[in-house]
Amino acid sequence: MRIFNTQVYGLRESLIRSGYPMSTEIPDMMEAIAQADWVNVNDRASRLGQSTPGSGHDCFLKGIRVQCDIEAPSYWWPQFQRYHFADIISSQSKMHRITKFDISSQCTEDVHPMAIALAEDHIAKYIRGEITIDQMMANIPMGLQLTAGIDLSYLQIKTMCRQRDAHRLEMWRIFKAWANTLPMARMLGVVV
């Protein structure tokens, strides 16, 4: 698994907005950012971010958006897609490009060489018209890595990290380690 091309958006704005529940007047955002007492803003955001998931006190984390690319094996993607709130911006298409992929280099090192050879054989048979696309696709290893661009919020990442904290798949530990690299993630309770 590889997570790369990470961009974070809306961090300062969401930190300011974390104070809206106790505000009587809403300032211009650019002025608020320029004039903010960042020690107090960060302290408030830290307290709110550390609140119990589902309590609603950490909802400002929704405004901190993260976009990145994730390259992961096919068997990991259904677990990620369980989170219906995580948007896949675009992804590689196994259906459209399987005959063009270099299967041996696109699979994880855990895929047995015989499985790769079998997949390559099925792809060649499909290209020659000897088998159907369904027969070919059914014989592609689950360790084939595909890359997708995703869009998440800090709140969604917080949920995922907690729910998958003790998961047996190494990919979730990689995901959590990546989450730890996000700006202010630990301070805001995104990761513990």
TrEMBL record:
Protein name, UniProt field: Uncharacterized protein
Report which superkingdom the organism of origin falls in. Answer: Bacteria
